């Protein structure tokens, strides 16, 4: 059972995540958008959206440090267990609270503002359930592991997580983890599988290129790509 | 010198009667889809008035366009790249739907289903945003013909500084119409604001377009454009804007708005300009110098040096020929009667306007004096400061001298041509008084008043050797794409219009077909609704009659 849940399921979900994104990108570039609803309502969004998104950026940063950076590395630069734990709980808690408050505002807005609710698709609703579950489970883990007994995820969950990407995953590490962490990981992987088919794809169009590109973009009818589609087989130009 | 070609437009406001035909035909062609109900790529505003969206010219509020930084460098008024990214989760300057207007349809079903009753049933307006009944209180031209101007017109930001002088009482006011499309600027702030780099300026003809596959819906272009001519399609989540009807322009026919203009007031032609000098011209210190600076960026296509440079830049010979005959270049630089709309936004707009003389003529005619006499007209232009100052706020950042000069040229044309039309000897002192000669004035009269079709529109076609590359000139079967015809209109799994991009011609064809045969209004599906307005009279619309025992569809 542990092998299925913490070995097969993660790889299945990640495969869907990767292949799904490739498929979505080739099939549906036009649908690849934030689908903003700011035009309908701005007062709640003005607070909810930045709280949620900036909070989430902090949460993601925290996960990178907690999951990807091995415990040995932080200790090597002199960050003791106590300092690490304090930073993780305080900064992580702050980001987490911002995320949850933002999420509550956004879900309330989505449900109560008529036009916004009308523009909500079934996939949106499904995604919201999983996203909210992941966030709330994560918050619960942060609170529970500091209040009731300490679980050092950096020697359990994190090692297992890195194992997935080095192809040496150890499901036994997860089965020892508290139920909250197990659920958090499973729901997160389910969300990854759902990801390419929801509006969450907009995460991968974070416009970082804007910082360096020239202000005005000129485009010509270039030789490689003529018109709106690639030339059909047998109709390519004779010479490049 | 880097020569580039720009497709540009001039509108002669003296001839605009405010009939909105341009707006309606444009809407039918481009924005009759769900998600763009509130969008008018072309709109006609009554001035003085608030415009559409309401009060869009107040850049202290909307922060559109460019400004000069403290170091004299041009920067986006709404802030630079980092500030844009910091505000990406909620655009602080985005107009809400109320600033445009809440689009609506009518509940026609009531008219059809109401039982026999004493009072005639009423079709109530229903919001296309919320689907609920609503009170219509604003629209794209709510203050048409100064309607409600005692409430609205005084909020017109272009009246700044002259408000106390303008009397908005019905008998004493002046009024004219201002049709607006996208300016297809040389220095577009919408493109500069787009985080995804989806808005681009076509290198061949300068038309500014949104790449629908690259747009991610960050909405920075909507707030970045000071003319508010980029719109957010709330169903597809993508930005859309006036395309200068590029599929028509590529094959040498004018835009829909120009073609259908009953006043024949629009002119389309090429302007050659020096791309290397655009930034410098947009950065001149004084707002009032921007008009001259932009005029100086344009190159004279009859200058051999310019022709050589154009050839080196790869501009085809027939395009240079077209630039020589361009009515737009003539009105801007030869006759100098066209002025840019709001040069102070520093975007180098490329749809220019000939300011209207008619408010002045009307006043003279009302007093019973001869409204075509040069002396009377010149005196009136000098005395009637209010219309002139207002026009200057629109077209020259408040500098009345260029507006004065244009109006006097138009007045001179009137008096000079009257002598000719009445068979009298033309008075050569009239053109001299405005710095022109009789022949030039006559040429200008021919272009403005006779306005032959092939003189108004000088549009070189895109090149045959590039035909395969054109989006619309289908050298392959235009229906020959994945999904094929008949697959349109179904909503994809990721919301409205998801899936691969469809060529515009195919999309419009399918859309019209669907509208003519569908039972529902756009965007909302109501069971049992029959829309007889879309019924072409053939067959029986589905749902009109109850189903019989066994029947095949239709």
From TrEMBL, chain A:
It is a multi-pass membrane protein. Keywords: Cell membrane, Electron transport, Heme, Iron, Membrane, Metal-binding, Nitrate assimilation, Oxidoreductase, Transmembrane, Transmembrane helix, Transport. Residues 2-221 form the NarG-like domain. It is found in: Cell membrane. Heme b binds at residues 53, 63, 184, 202. GO terms for cellular component: nitrate reductase complex; plasma membrane. One of its GO terms (biological process) is anaerobic electron transport chain. The keyword Amino-acid biosynthesis does not apply. The chain crosses the membrane at residues 6-23, 44-70, 82-108, 128-151, 179-197. One of its GO terms (molecular function) is nitrate reductase activity. The keyword Iron applies. In the central section; belongs to the NarJ/NarW family. Does not seem to have nitrate reductase activity. This is Nitrate reductase-like protein NarX. It comes from Pedococcus cremeus.
Automatic annotation (TrEMBL), chain B:
Coiled coil: none annotated. One of its GO terms (biological process) is anaerobic respiration. One of its GO terms (molecular function) is nitrate reductase activity. Transmembrane segments: none annotated. The keyword Iron applies. Residues 7-36, 173-204, 206-235 form the 4Fe-4S ferredoxin-type domain. SUPFAM superfamilies: 4Fe-4S ferredoxins (SSF54862). Residues 515-554 are annotated as: Disordered. Its main location: other. It is found in: Cell envelope. Its cofactor is [3Fe-4S] cluster; [4Fe-4S] cluster. InterPro entries: 4Fe4S_Fe-S-bd, Nitr_red_bet_C, Nitr_red_bet_C_sf, NO3_Rdtase_bsu. Pfam families: Fer4_11, Nitr_red_bet_C. GO terms for cellular component: cell envelope; membrane; nitrate reductase complex. This is Respiratory nitrate reductase beta subunit. It comes from Pedococcus cremeus.
């Amino acid at each position: 059972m542990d092998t299925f849940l913490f070995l097969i399921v993660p790889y299945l979900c990640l495969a869907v995540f990767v292949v799904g994104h490739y498929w979505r990108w080739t099939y549906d570039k036009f649908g690849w958008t934030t689908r903003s609803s700011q035009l309908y309502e701005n007062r709640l969004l003005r607070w909810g959206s930045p709280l949620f998104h900036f909070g989430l950026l902090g949460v993601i940063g925290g996960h990178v440090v907690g999951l990807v950076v091995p415990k040995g590395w932080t200790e090597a630069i002199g960050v003791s267990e106590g300092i690490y734990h304090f930073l993780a709980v305080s900064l992580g808690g702050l980001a987490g609270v911002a995320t949850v408050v933002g999420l509550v505002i956004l879900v309330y807005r989505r449900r109560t503002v008529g036009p916004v609710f009308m523009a909500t698709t079934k996939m949106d609703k499904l995604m919201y359930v999983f996203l909210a579950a992941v966030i709330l489970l994560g918050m619960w883990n942060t609170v529970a592991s500091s209040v009731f007994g300490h679980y050092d995820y950096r020697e359990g969950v994190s090692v297992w997580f890195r194992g997935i990407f080095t192809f040496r995953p150890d499901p036994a590490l997860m089965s020892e983890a508290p139920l909250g962490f197990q659920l958090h990981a499973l729901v997160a992987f389910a969300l990854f599988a759902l990801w390419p088919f929801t509006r969450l794809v907009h995460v991968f169009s974070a416009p970082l290129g804007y910082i360096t590109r020239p202000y005005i973009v000129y485009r010509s009818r270039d030789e490689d790509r003529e018109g709106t589609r690639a030339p059909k087989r047998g109709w390519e130009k004779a010479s490049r | 010198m880097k020569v580039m070609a720009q497709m540009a437009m001039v509108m002669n406001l003296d001839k605009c009667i405010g009939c909105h035909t341009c707006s309606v035909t444009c809407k039918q062609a481009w924005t009759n889809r769900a998600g763009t109900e509130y969008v008018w790529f072309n709109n006609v505003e009554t001035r003085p008035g608030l415009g559409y969206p309401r009060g869009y010219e107040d850049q202290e509020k909307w922060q559109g366009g460019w400004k000069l930084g403290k170091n004299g460098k041009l920067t986006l008024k709404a802030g630079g790249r980092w500030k844009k990214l910091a505000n990406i989760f909620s655009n602080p300057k985005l107009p809400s739907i109320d600033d445009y207007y809440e689009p609506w349809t009518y509940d026609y079903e009531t008219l059809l289903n109401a039982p026999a009753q004493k009072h005639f049933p009423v079709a109530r307006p229903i919001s296309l945003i919320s689907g609920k009944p609503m009170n219509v209180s604003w629209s794209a031209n709510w203050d048409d013909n100064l309607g409600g101007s005692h409430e609205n017109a005084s909020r017109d930001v272009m009246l700044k500084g002259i408000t106390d002088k303008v009397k908005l009482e019905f008998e004493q006011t002046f009024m004219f119409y201002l049709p607006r499309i996208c300016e297809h600027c040389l220095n577009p702030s919408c493109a500069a604001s787009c985080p995804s780099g989806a808005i681009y300026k076509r290198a061949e003809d300068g038309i500014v377009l949104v790449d629908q596959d690259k747009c991610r819906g960050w909405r920075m272009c909507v707030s970045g454009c000071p003319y508010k001519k980029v719109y957010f399609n709330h169903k597809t989540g993508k930005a859309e804007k006036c395309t200068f009807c590029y599929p028509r322009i590529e094959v040498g026919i004018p835009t829909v708005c120009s073609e259908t203009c009953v006043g024949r007031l629009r002119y389309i032609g090429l302007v050659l300009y020096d791309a290397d000098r655009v930034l410098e011209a947009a950065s001149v210190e004084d707002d009032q110098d921007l008009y001259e600076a932009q005029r100086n960026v344009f190159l004279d296509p009859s200058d051999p040096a310019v022709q050589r440079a154009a050839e080196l830049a790869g501009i085809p010979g027939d395009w240079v020929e077209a630039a020589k005959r361009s009515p737009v270049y003539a009105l801007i630089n030869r006759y100098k009667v066209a002025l840019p709309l709001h040069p102070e936004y520093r975007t180098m707009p490329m749809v220019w306007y000939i300011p209207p003389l008619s408010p002045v003529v009307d006043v003279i005619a009302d007093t019973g004096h001869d409204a075509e006499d040069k002396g009377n007209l010149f005196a009136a232009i000098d005395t009637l400061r209010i219309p002139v100052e207002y026009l200057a706020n629109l077209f020259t950042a408040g500098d009345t001298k260029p507006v004065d000069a244009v109006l006097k040229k138009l007045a001179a044309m009137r008096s000079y041509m009257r002598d000719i039309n009445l068979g009298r000897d033309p008075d050569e002192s009239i053109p001299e008084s405005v710095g022109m000669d009789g022949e030039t004035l006559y040429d200008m009269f021919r272009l403005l008043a006779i306005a032959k079709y092939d003189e108004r529109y000088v549009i070189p076609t895109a090149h045959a050797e590039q035909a395969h590359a054109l989006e619309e000139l289908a050298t392959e079967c235009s229906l020959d794409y994945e999904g094929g015809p008949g697959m349109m209109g179904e909503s994809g799994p990721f919301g409205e219009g998801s899936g691969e991009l469809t060529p515009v011609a195919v999309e419009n064809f399918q859309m019209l077909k669907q509208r003519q045969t569908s039972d529902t209004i756009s965007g909302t599906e109501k069971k049992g609704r029959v829309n007889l307005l879309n019924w072409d009279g053939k067959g029986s619309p589905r749902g009109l009659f109850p189903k019989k025992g066994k029947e095949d569809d239709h």
